[in-house]
């Protein structure tokens, strides 16, 4: 493990290994350049959780839930079985934050608490929340609203819950550069958002880097 940029500590394992071993209490983010890369990371988080008796919530902003369900099945996640036995819940983001222009922070926090309690009551070891919501807010100029939602969730969670948020970092000029240059650029432009998290994953063209915050 090496230290970069002060508070950033690099983790030298693959994203799949890191996410499989992830404990409750973490609030992380992933920066990606394509939906396939986003799915690789979020679905690894989802699948390893389901296979290890976690309750899992997948929250999306604008895509149809059925499209994401189909994508999960391509990644060999048995959505029909996991949804039927109550292990997997697919939600629209608005069910959590209500109005994106004026997010209900109390409902956002209360919903995560209620969902956690519900899964624990079913005998799950904890809850994993994978969220593909940021692009909806940021592409519409709702930066402050998303900032407030990110910071409403603790950096280190007291609930038996781990959260992984996805960020679109479309930077074609950096695709073929060193992954650390990609990280430095994104980290510099998105530091306020990254600092809301306990870890960050950066992926680009088959390369990845993970940092503890």
Short note summarizing the structure:
The chain is α/β, with parallel strands linked by helices and 213 residues long. The chain has helices spanning 15-20, 35-51, 65-74, 79-84, 94-97, 105-121, 134-138, 143-152, 179-189, 191-194; strands at 3-4, 8-11, 27-32, 55-60, 88-92, 127-132, 161-168, 199-204, 207-212.
What would you say this structure looks like, in words?
This protein has 213 residues and is an alpha/beta fold. Helices cover 42% and strands 23% of the residues. The chain contains ten helices and nine strands. The protein has a nine-stranded mixed sheet with strand order 1-2-9-8-3-7-6-4-5, with helices on both faces. The longest helix is centred in the first third of the chain and has 17 residues, at 35-51. The chain is globular, with a radius of gyration of 16 Å.
Give the tally of β-strands: 9
Shape: globular
CATH classification class: Alpha Beta
- Alpha carbon gap, first and last residue: 13 Å
CATH topology: Rossmann fold
Biggest sheet features: 9 strands, mixed
Structural class: alpha/beta
Query: Which whole number gives the mean pLDDT?
Result: 84
Number of helices: 10
List SSEs in N-to-C order. EEHEHEHHEHHEHHEHHEE
| Amount of beta strand | 15-25%
> How large is the radius of gyration?
16 Å
Q: What share of residues is helical? A: 40-55%
Uncertain regions: pLDDT < 50 for 5+ in a row?
Answer: 1-5, 171-177
User: What spatial order of strands do you see in the largest sheet?
Assistant: 1-2-9-8-3-7-6-4-5
- Proper CATH architecture: 3-Layer(aba) Sandwich
CATH superfamily: P-loop containing nucleotide triphosphate hydrolases
Write down the domain tally: 1
């Amino acid at each position: 493990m090496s230290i970069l940029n002060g508070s950033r500590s690099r983790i030298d394992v693959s994203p799949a290994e890191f996410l499989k071993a992830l404990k409750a209490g973490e609030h992380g983010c992933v920066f990606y350049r394509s939906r396939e890369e986003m799915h690789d990371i979020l679905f690894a988080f989802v699948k390893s959780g389901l296979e290890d008796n976690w309750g899992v919530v997948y929250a999306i902003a604008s895509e149809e839930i059925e499209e994401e369900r189909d994508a999960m099945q391509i990644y060999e996640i048995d959505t029909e079985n996991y949804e039927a036995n109550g292990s997997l819940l697919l939600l629209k983001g608005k069910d959590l934050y209500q109005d994106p222009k004026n997010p209900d922070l109390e409902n956002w926090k209360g919903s995560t608490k209620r969902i956690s309690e519900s899964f624990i009551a079913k005998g799950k070891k904890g809850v994993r929340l994978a969220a593909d919501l940021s692009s909806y807010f940021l592409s519409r100029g709702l930066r402050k609203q998303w900032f407030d939602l990110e910071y409403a969730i603790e950096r280190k969670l007291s609930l038996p819950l781990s959260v992984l948020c996805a960020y679109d970092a479309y930077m074609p000029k950096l695709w073929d550069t060193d992954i650390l240059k990609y990280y430095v650029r994104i980290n510099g432009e998105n530091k306020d958002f990254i600092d809301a998290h306990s870890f960050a994953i950066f992926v680009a063209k088959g390369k990845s880097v993970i940092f503890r915050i």
